[in-house]
Design goal:
This protein is an alpha/beta fold. It has 15 helices and 15 strands. The protein has a seven-stranded mixed β-sheet with strand order 4-10-9-8-7-5-6, with helices on both faces. A four-stranded mixed β-sheet has the order 1-2-3-13. Helix 4 (about 70-85) runs antiparallel to helix 12, helix 5 packs across helix 12 and helix 13 runs parallel beside helix 15.
């Protein structure tokens, strides 16, 4: 009786979701036919669906469950704050204790003179709001023509109207939408795997830096407000720029009086073993850092803009100036408590040390997949990795779009109890920072087997030679 009721309940939930729940990046036809995989429980790096099947979440939710799921001390801290003060108006001259403590803590963790924090609800709204702050800053210092921004192909900065315009992922430029185009300029992707075969990594870096400088000269430095850059490109393909690229592009920004915004929504809070990687890994001192995701390890939604004394001092040089941006849930006290407790756990459990110890082993084991006939590239750093599938390893030719190679592989992984994230020809892995070598030895063989099953399917369908 109990089992029968449970089966009925699971089917009912699945059907309600299929009929009524429109998901981010919703494919209407596919979803109407197949519905979704509905999760019911989570503990550590493991998820359980409504039918009781368990999965190792090698995606870390969406790059974000950094400390793992189901931590009672997080629940207790959140519950205590809900009881004490569930909400306080964050606008103008109102605040709350958790927001004040978290802002001060982030100023301590951020590099250089990034001492000022504006809270948002997530990464997209952080980048959107930072864009407006940049425009205000340039105008406030008498540089009203400085409105253009430089970004890169394959970049991802969010899903608001503005941040979708900033992003350089062609697959997300839906033809039904319009975008900001007049002041946003996309430079080449720093993806060395797709560089000409006769070009060295150093030559490719020179090409990219020269291209950026030529674009600055073409537009005029007095017209360019900022450069938006992920230290390692995340959703665009886990692209690690060529050696020296980040530092050299930052030097161009210094030379031409252009603000450097480091989008650390993915790379921040331990994914690469540091609070922030711009300075610690790439010797870049940003003017602005945006963050979210690992800030609360996804226990509650929160994003932040951390910006420099220089920007703040310019914005405050007029007593009549107001920063006309913010959200009802900016500096939400419960979300800020979650972030403070999350940071405490990361420090106490030395999770960054775990990333630095296990990460190289994770990289090495994933790179063993390169012997498979469709694995063209395995790239990334530490707990931020990606497997690239191609139809021809020599020519690097993609599979036809309709093959949906990344999704095929992820579906086969799910059947084997591992969740990886598909994106066209990519499968992304960004596990919780608690992952052990034992976990790596669980994940990688199953990913290998999923790719092997996919290869057999493709051979049967004539996409690959038998």
């Amino acid at each position: 009786m109990h089992m029968s009721k449970r089966i009925h309940s699971s089917q009912e939930i699945w059907e309600k979701d299929r009929r009524h729940h429109v998901h981010p990046f919703h494919n209407f036809v596919s979803y109407d036919e197949n519905g979704s995989l509905i999760m019911d429980k989570g503990e550590g790096a493991y998820l359980r669906d409504i039918d009781g099947k368990e999965y190792f979440d090698a995606v870390g939710g969406m790059w974000c469950t950094n400390i793992g799921l189901g931590r009672k001390e997080m629940a207790d801290a959140i519950a205590e704050q809900v009881t004490k003060l569930a909400y306080a108006n964050p606008f103008t001259d109102m605040s709350n204790e958790p927001a004040a403590r978290l802002a001060a803590r982030l100023a301590e963790l951020a590099p250089g003179d990034l001492n000022h924090v504006l809270f948002t609800g997530g990464g997209s709204t952080a980048n959107d709001t930072a864009f407006r702050m940049i425009q205000m800053y340039q105008a406030a210092r008498g540089k009203k023509r400085k409105k253009h921004v430089l970004v890169r192909l394959d970049a991802y900065h969010g899903t608001t109207y503005l941040t979708t315009s900033l992003s350089g992922k062609a697959g997300e430029k839906s033809p039904e939408f319009s975008f900001v185009e007049d002041i946003i300029h996309h430079l080449s992707s720093p993806n060395f795997y797709r560089a000409p075969s006769d070009m060295s990594e150093a030559d490719f870096c020179d090409f990219l830096v020269d291209e950026m400088e030529q674009k600055i000269l073409e537009l005029g430095a007095d017209n360019i407000a900022a450069f938006f850059a992920e230290p390692i490109l995340g959703s665009g393909g886990v692209i690690v720029p060529p050696e020296g690229y980040n530092r050299r592009t930052w030097e161009l920004c210094q030379k031409y009086d252009i603000l450097y915004l480091a989008d650390e929504v993915v790379t921040g809070f331990g994914r690469l073993g540091h609070w922030f990687v711009s300075k610690d890994m790439f010797d870049v001192q940003p003017d602005i850092i945006t963050c979210a995701k690992g800030l609360t390890s996804a226990y509650l939604p929160l994003g932040a803009i951390i910006f420099s004394d220089r920007i703040y001092e310019v914005l405050r040089n007029d007593a009549d100036r107001w920063f006309t941006g913010g959200f009802t849930y900016s500096a939400h006290p419960v979300c800020c408590v979650a972030a403070l407790k999350n940071i405490e756990i990361m420090e106490r459990e030395k999770l960054f040390e775990n990333v630095k110890a296990v990460g190289p082993y994770f990289e090495a084991q994933l790179k063993t997949l390169r012997d498979l006939p469709i694995v063209g590239d395995v790239r990334g750093r530490l707990f931020m990795m990606c497997v690239v599938s191609v139809m021809n390893k020599k020519t690097k030719e993609f599979f036809p779009y309709e093959v949906n190679i990344g999704k095929r592989i992820s579906n086969n992984c799910e059947a084997l109890g591992v969740i990886v994230r598909p994106y066209v020809d990519l499968n992304i892995l960004s596990p919780p920072l608690t992952m052990t070598r034992h976990d790596v030895d669980y994940v990688v063989p199953r990913l290998r087997r999923a790719i092997e099953i996919t290869i057999d399917e493709l051979r049967g369908e004539g996409y690959l030679a038998a």
